[in-house]
Write a structure and sequence with these properties.
Layout (H helix, E strand, L loop, with lengths): L5 H13 L2 H8 L3 H15 L4 E4 L2 E4 L1 H27 L4 E9 L6 H11 L2 E9 L1 H10 L4 E4 L8 E8 L2 E6 L12 H4 L3 E4 L5 H12 L5 E5 L3 H9 L5 E4 L12 E3 L10 E7 L6 H19 L11 H4 L15
Parallel strand pairs: 3-4, 3-5, 8-9
Antiparallel strand pairs: 1-2, 5-12, 6-12, 7-10, 7-11
Length: 330
């Protein structure tokens, strides 16, 4: 083993974690042949096969499972050593890997901005994708931390609530319900809704809220992003239930409005997760502590500006009448 290189260990760890040579090559920014050669050389040095392929799936051999534990411990220790050295130098440095669902993109950059002010030497790899893909990355242990609106029930994870996630109902600005107050849920259920794809946490929360009251959403269209939903709402295609965080810095504020509905906002939480048995690196633990301490204060800086958190009378927007053209003198 004395002739094995750190690069070979890293290649093996990526393949073993992702169960894919192709995905490991993408993660390491290497060609697939290079990754395969590194794995073959390491297997020859060990003297035993580390992986075996059955059909299209890769499985770790007994030797591979033991080597993966060694690699993970080694890389965790190296990450901690980097942080110790950085502390000696009076700085903090290292790499943080995050995977978040698309709705979290409205506040995670704000949080990272504050984090970078305190720890400018830390690099971040941020993966923004849908819930299904975040859960897949969580299953693959591809990142340090994961942000979801609802922890999975079928996975052994540690989940900590760190931020309020109120869900509100939005409508076109000119919608008849826009000026009504204390709208009942049965009245709302008469309207068509625009929703996210199956599995979306926001969709599940909205459907369950209506179901708990013996009602069902009338779905007109499924869309793949919050931005697409907001544009569709502005276009008059229907109403939507969205996280209030998606309305921060809203460009369509003159085209969509938050409705005053009984039982809304739906009070939910954002969660930061990791596998239950995962030992966090110093960088990841530092960011986790920062999230838990700073997120609510960050949200208070912009959530009160969103109509759902304003007095009802301040939500009513009246467009100024068009100015009449001056009459020409005869």
């Amino acid at each position: 083993m004395r002739h094995a290189t750190l690069r070979q260990f890293k290649v093996f760890e990526s393949i073993a974690r992702l169960r894919s040579v192709t995905r490991a090559a993408e993660e390491l920014h290497l060609t697939q042949p290079t990754v395969s050669i590194q794995l073959k050389q390491l297997s020859e040095i060990v003297g035993l096969p580390l992986l075996e392929q059955v059909g299209k799936k890769l499985y770790l051999t007994d030797a591979g499972q033991e080597l993966l534990k060694v690699c993970q411990t080694m890389f965790d220790n190296l990450a901690r050593f980097e942080m110790v050295v950085s502390d000696f130098k009076g700085t903090k440095a290292g790499r943080l890997r995050l995977s978040v669902i698309t709705t979290a993109q409205y506040f995670i950059p704000r949080l990272l901005g504050r984090f970078f002010e305190r720890y400018p030497g830390i690099e971040v790899s941020l993966e923004v994708t849908n819930r299904g893909k975040v859960l897949q990355r969580l299953s693959d242990n591809a990142d340090d931390l994961y942000v979801l609106g609802q922890p999975p029930e079928h996975m052994d994870v540690r989940a900590e609530a760190f931020l309020d996630n109120p869900l509100v109902v939005v409508a076109p600005h000119e919608h008849p319900l826009a000026l009504e107050r204390n709208i009942t849920l049965p009245r709302l259920a008469q309207e068509f809704f625009l929703i996210r794809e199956p599995g979306s946490g926001t969709r599940l929360a909205a459907e369950n809220h209506f179901k708990d009251h013996g009602l069902a959403l009338k779905v007109r269209m499924e869309l793949g992003s919050n931005e697409a939903i907001k544009l569709a709402v502005a276009g008059g295609l229907g109403l939507a239930v969205l996280s209030a965080h998606t309305l921060a810095l809203e460009k369509n504020s003159d085209e969509i409005t938050v409705l005053d509905v009984q039982g809304f906002p739906i009070r939910r939480q954002w969660y930061v997760l990791r596998p239950a048995d995962k030992q966090l690196s110093v960088v990841a633990q530092t960011f986790l502590d920062f999230m838990l301490a700073e997120s609510q204060a960050m949200a208070r800086s912009y959530l009160p500006q969103i109509p759902a958190f304003m007095p009802p009378e301040s939500r009513i927007k009246v467009k100024a009448p068009a100015k009449s053209k001056p009459q020409r003198s005869p």
